[in-house]
Amino acid sequence: QLYKLSNYEINEFEHKAQYITSNDIQSSLSEYLTNLSLSINVINYNRIVVAEGPVRIDLAGGWSDTPPICYDLGGSVLNVAIKIDNKNPIRCVCRFLPNNPIIILKSLKLINNQIEGSNNNHVITDTAVCTSDSDFANVSDLSDPCSLLKALVIALDIIKVNNADSSYPLQDRLAAKLSGGIEIACISYLPIGSGMGGSSILAAVAIKSLSTLLNISLTNEAISYLVCYMEQLMTSGGGWQDQIGGIYSGFKISHSINCLPLRLSIDSINVTSDVITAFEERTFLIYTGQQRLAKNTLINALRRYSTISSEDNIINQLKLGAVNGAKILISNINIDANQIVDQISDTLNDYWRLKKLIAEGSEPSHISKFLSYLHPICRGQSLCGAGGGGFAVVILDSRYSYNDLNKLVDEARNIIADVSLHRVTIDNDG
User: Fold this and answer.
1) pTM score, two decimals?
2) DSSP E strands: which ranges in 123-263?
3) Most exposed: 61, 238, 253, 333, by fewest CB within 10 Å?
4) β-strand partners of 391
5) What would the pLDDT profile of 142-180 be if each residue is shown by its tens digit?
6) What sign does the dihedral 209-214-215-217 (CA atoms) show?
7) Rounded CA gap, 241 and 264, in Å?
C-alpha cells in the first residue's frame, strides 16, 4: 500500500511510527526513571568525572535490533568491544559549576576528520550555554553539535521539557536542585559515520560520567535503555546493539524478544587467551575515507523492510548467524584458536552478504573494488555497522600478517586515497 502513497503521506506515517517507538522506549524506561531526580545527591562540588569507552565491531545479527524490526521478529546480535590502536576513542568529562546555575555543553571534534590526536591543535569545540528551557527545544536537530548532550540532560531528568515546571525558570531550578550548574564536554576520536557505534557509545559514556557526578546509581542495563531514549529524543533512531557493544566488555550475544515494551538480555562470552590472541593478530580496521549518516541508511532499510515480505527471512537469517557465531565462540574447548577465528570470519562474510541485501547501497563501488583488492589475503571482510562507508573490518587468512595487509593497502591507494589501517585490541573493561 505504501507505493500508492505520496512522499508527504509516507513521511507522515514515518513520523507517527517514530512517535509510537519513542513512547515504547519511554515505557521500557519507566522503572529506571521513577524518582530519578530524587536520587541526585550532590556531595563534592570540586569533583571532576572522566568516563571513556571502547567501540564495537558487529559480527552478526545487526539490523535485527532496530525498531520496529525487533518488535516484529525479535533481535539477536553478536558483537565485540574493542580498542582502536589500543586506545578508547570515546570520552566525556563532567564537573559542577558551584553558584553558577547554568548548563555548559561542549562537543569537541577532530579537524579534517582525523581518527586520532588529542591535543588542542587537532580539535575544535562547539559550545552551548544553556540558561532556559528554550535552549533545549532543538534537541532533535541533528545539525546541532550539542544535540546529544542536550538529550543527556533531558534523559537524566536534570531539566523537564514540555512540563509545568517550565514556568519556573531553569536557572532557579538548577540553583534549588544543584546549588549551581554543570559543565559537560565530550569527544569522539572517530570520524562522523564511522560505523563503529560511536554516537550511541558516546551517549552511554556521557550517561556514565554525568550520573557518577550526580551520584545517580545506574545499572548497565539502565544505561542501555537510556541511550535508546536519548536517540528517540534526537530522532536519530537506530537499534540497541551499539551501546551494548561498548557498555559490556569483550564478546557478547544480546537478544530482544518480539514484544512491547522492549526487553533486552545480554550474555557475555568468555573465550580463551589463545582465541583472543589469534583474533587480535588477524583482525584489523581500515578507515575507507568516506563518512555516511546512519539515519539515511536506516530510513531506506526500514522502508524496504516495510514493503518486501521476504525481508522477514533475511532478518531470521541475521539472527541465526548471531546465535551460530556465539556457539562457535562458546564451544572453543580443544579447538585450535585459528580454526575458531576462521569460523567467525565465515560468519562475518555471511553477515556482510545479508547486510547488503537489506540495505541497498551499503557497499559503494569504489569500496567494493578496494575490498576485492585485499580479498586474496583475507578470510573475512565487512563494512562495520550499516555500511556505506566508515570503517571496514578485515580478518586475515592465518598465513598472512599486518605487514602483508599494510603493503596491499598502500598499493590500493589509487582506489581510495585516504585509507588508514588500524590495529584491534579486545576491550576487557567496557
Assistant:
1) 0.91
2) 123-130, 180-188, 251-256
3) 333
4) 287
5) 889 999 999 999 998 887 766 545 568 899 989 988 889
6) negative
7) 10
